[in-house]
Amino acid sequence: MASLLEQHQDRFLSELLDWLRIPSVSADPKFHGDVLKAAEYLKARFEEVGLEKVELCPTAGNPIVYGEKIVDPSLPTVLVYGHYDVQPADPYELWDSPPFEPVIKDEKIYARGACDDKGQVYMHVKALEMMNLDGGLPCNIKVMIEGEEEIGSNNLGIFVRANKEKLKADVILISDTGMLANDAPSIEVGLRGLSYHEVEVTGPNRDLHSGIYGGAVPNPINVLCKMIASLHDENNHITIPEFYKNVAVLTDAERAELNRVPHSDDEFKQSIGLNDVYGEKGYTTVERIGIRPTLDVNGIWGGYTGEGAKTVIASKAYAKISMRLVPHQTSDEITALFQKHFESIAPSGVTVVVKPHHGGEPVVTPTDSVAYKAAADAMETTFGKRPIPTRGGGSIPIVAMFKTELGLDTVLLGFGLDSDAIHSPNEHYGVFNFLKGIETIPHFYRNYAAAMKA
Asked: Where is the Peptidase M20 dimerisation domain (predicted)?
């Protein structure tokens, strides 16, 4: 397999770069045509690697690219999920090279979507091709790649509920996560949920001269900053009443096991240019990321932000605020608690509007399943080390939805690294990681098929 991969790796990389050139930004309507173009590109690649019943499945938003290969109905079926849409690339000026003109530099592929999630999706496409070149598929495979993950997957649940027979499978396989390091393979077995909001604070009915009115009227930007600051106490504990009511509390033994993950605070700080770690008092960095909920401001704006000075008190101020959730919190519960609390702390003289956006549920996947063992064995084969189970800080809301709607557990077989700068300028994905994924995925299928047959 490795020698076969070497024969084709340059072509595989070239094809990925072509796909990365298509700016499939789902959040910005001006890229809608490019989103459709990216879907069409993937559909063509599905057909090339031998998938059947390949189609662009329409939704109320962007289409879902679907294909399958049923080699024998008596064999187990794996449903692969991923997404072809990408985050906005703004601010463009912070990129060292244009985000949609991919380059390979220092053995890394630089482009928006290189790791999240086009590069990892394309590993699966090329793994299918590799298996076809090396004896065929050992089990049935269905592939469903959506175009709205970065904006909340609003239409995926509708599609899944309407197509349960089409999507019938034994397990879900997703590569939209990461591992500890190239020499420390790992498999994520937990993900945090999400509750996301936009808030608007309104004061006077128009922007005001800060000299004539300053000191006599509420400044919405000042007010918003105070409100946000009050959401954490001196121990970085979130102050929303009942926020922690349902948070799963790990035992000392469970926390000790979690902290066996290789981690260095010094390396962590150095990697992102900090002089100290930060977070909720009483927890390690690994715990803060994996098992504790958070609240963060993702954007804040209002007033004059152009060149030079403009002495103005803005009429409105805005912020985007997200909370990462852990078992057994739910997005509906936290959304309601946040909205009630944020509106309650507004001082007189301003009005506050809280607009909930998308959410998702936290999930923990089993480590004693046939599928997890097949994935762990596959990584051990190609990396030469047994992968470590870890809990990730990110959110993939559809994992919980797949469990609810399809009754299926998910294996998160990701090959990204924390240093890949996903959602940031200069996103990149290691050539090693891309090729290692293509090498590893076929081993998963073979291991899984053999174990299910036994």
From this structure: 198-348
- The tokens of 34 are what? 């490019």
Tell me the C-alpha distance between 256 and 251, whole Å.
Answer: 9
CA 186/CA 172 separation, integer angstroms: 18
CA-wise closest residue to 42 among 72, 70, 62, 71: 62
β-pair partners for 55: 66
Q: Buried b vs exposed e over 331-363: b needs ≥16 C-beta within 10 Å?
A: bebbbebbbebbeeebeeebebebebbbbbbbb
Known catalytic residues?
Answer: 85, 149
Q: Are 387 and 150 contacting, i.e. CB atoms less than 8 angstroms apart?
A: no
Q: Distance (Å, rounded) from C-alpha 228 to C-alpha 240?
A: 11
Structure confidence by residue, pLDDT tens digits, 5-27 = 999 999 999 999 999 999 999 99
What are the tens digits of pLDDT across the range 224-240? 999 999 999 999 999 99
CB 19 within 8 A of CB 42: yes
CA distances from 158 to 58, 64, 187, 266 (A): 11, 12, 29, 45
Type of residue numbered 55: E
Averaged pLDDT score across all residues of the chain: 96
Q: Which of these, 174, 367, 362, 375, lies nearest to 254 by C-alpha position?
A: 367
Using the Cα atoms of residue 153, residue 158, residue 160 and residue 163 in order, give the sign of their dihedral.
negative
Q: Give dist(CA 382, CA 2) in Å, integer.
A: 9
411/407 Cα distance (integer angstroms): 14
Are the beta carbons of 56 and 64 closer than 8 angstroms?
Answer: yes
Q: Residue 413: what residue type?
A: L
User: Residue 111 carries which DSSP code?
Assistant: S
Our CA angle for 317, 318, 322, nearest 5°, is: 150
End-to-end CA, the chain: 24
- The model's pTM: 0.86
Q: Residue 80's pLDDT is what?
A: 98
